[in-house]
Specification:
With 441 residues, the chain is mainly α. It is built from 18 helices and five strands. It has a three-stranded antiparallel β-sheet with strand order 1-2-3, with helices on one face.
């Protein structure tokens, strides 16, 4: 029996445990936070059964991927890049609109978000570039230009409709370049250039974006936009700028440090922020207990973007800290796996995927507690999702696949079992990857 289970649950056991705990937390909290979906659908069990089904499909896909040898990931990279880029263009032209943003493509009744797949395709490409262009003194200077070109091509169609995703992917790319020993002078120039572009973009948002604050509520603004769109077809310029009003309102709310008395707080206009704050404050540190949230009935995205606020309300500060630490453990454990890789490509790939998941998770938590502007970023492997949850499971499968090959190969068949179990005690030689990453592990 143990042998059969071992054939299924291959790879690093710590990564498996982290994945298991995140899935359990997801099932409990999504079940608790889906009261609005249950009310609208008239079926109390339907949302959680669907979510469990998606997690089951994701786990099945993860098991399939972890059995794929790492060398085959290189072969699919060009096809993934091409498919991701085409679907990103399609979603700009004919994407389905949800909450005022064109981010989805309908396929067989399922909403597919191309940007989720584009993340992995870009990380695969960058890992190959960094591994192929390593020298004794670090990455070749040309690697920076190649990475910048591929990143610009993939991020350009994402930014107009999903600016937060583009920024998080960009942060992951920069960290991958740092780990990949790209010259610091090039990274510094990139950060400086990006800072100038961001300042210019924010200025354009405030100049061009509609003043959403003057409207009664964001829902009314979206309704009016839909009515206008039905009367006259949108121009190409309007497709690129229609999200600027939303961005402007979010920036203004985040930058507004004025203390508003509770009796003057407009819950119609700032419902998500207001009810998230109420959920956090009403937790009383220890939490109300799983399933006892009250703000889930008022938060429109309680099961997705603001699920961390519901976690704090129900599980308290201690439970919220455990959830955050699970992602931190995921990053550090992946760093251990990458440190033991004999080749640079799997090490860069594993770290890129872990950084992408952890950065998104930390940003989601910051939004929930008011430390970042409101965006549409879900909590990976915890928030209710469709294809995004399945794709995140596949990313975990890639890390597990790399963890299998990262173990030191036994010197003889007689000592195979002992060497596999005791690989953590074996010293690993310094490689091009570990020269920069080892001080941080």
């Amino acid at each position: 029996m143990n042998k059969k289970l071992g054939n299924i649950f291959k790879g690093d056991k710590v990564i498996w445990m982290i994945f298991f705990f995140l899935c359990m937390i997801s099932i409990v909290e999504v079940y608790s936070a889906s009261s609005s979906l249950s009310y609208k659908g008239g079926n109390y069990w339907s949302p959680i059964l669907k979510h469990c089904g998606i997690l089951a499909v994701g786990t099945f896909m993860m098991i399939l991927v972890l059995n794929v040898k790492c060398k085959y990931f290189k072969l699919v990279t060009p096809f993934l890049l091409l498919f991701s880029f085409i679907t990103l263009l399609v979603v700009l032209v004919a994407g389905e609109t949800t909450n005022g943003a064109n981010r989805w493509i309908g396929f067989l009744g399922i909403q597919f978000q191309p940007s989720e797949l584009a993340k992995g395709a870009l990380i695969l490409a960058i890992a190959q570039i960094l591994s192929a262009m390593q020298t004794d003194k670090g990455a070749d200077d040309k690697a920076f230009r190649y990475i910048l070109s591929v990143s610009a091509i993939m991020l350009a169609p994402i930014a107009p409709e999903n600016l937060s995703t583009a920024m998080l992917i960009g942060a992951t790319v920069v960290l991958m370049m740092f780990i990949g020993r790209v010259p610091l002078r090039q990274i510094g120039k990139l950060i400086g250039g990006v800072a100038i572009v961001v300042i210019f973009a924010i200025a354009m948002v405030f100049l061009v974006g509609d003043d959403v604050e003057k409207e009664v509520s964001e829902k009314q603004v979206l309704t009016e936009r839909v009515e206008v769109a039905a009367d006259e077809p949108p121009s190409a310029l309007s497709k690129l700028t229609h999200r600027m009003g939303t961005w402007k309102s979010r920036f203004k709310r985040f930058l507004n440090n004025e203390e508003i008395p509770p009796e003057k707080f407009d819950l119609d206009k700032d419902a998500q922020i207001g009810h998230a704050n109420i959920a956090i404050v009403s937790s009383n540190i220890v939490g109300k207990g799983p399933g006892n949230s009250t703000e889930r009935d008022f938060l429109s995205q309680a099961f997705s973007d603001f699920i961390y606020a519901i976690i704090i309300e129900e599980m308290g500060i201690g439970g919220a800290t455990i959830v955050a630490l699970l992602y931190v453990f995921l990053l550090f454990r992946t760093g251990k796996i990458a440190y033991r890789c004999e080749n640079a490509f799997p090490a860069f790939l594993a770290m890129g995927i872990a950084l992408m998941l952890v950065i998104q998770a930390l940003f989601n938590m910051m939004v929930a507690v008011g430390l970042a502007p409101v965006t549409g970023q879900p909590l990976p492997l915890v928030s209710k999702g469709g294809t995004s949850t399945i794709i995140n499971c596949i990313y975990i499968g890639v890390i597990l696949s790399i963890s299998r090959s990262a173990k030191k190969k036994p010197s003889s068949s007689a000592d195979a079992d002992n060497d596999i179990e005791d690989y953590a005690l074996t010293p690993i030689p310094q490689t091009q990857f570990t020269q920069r990453i080892s001080p941080n592990i």
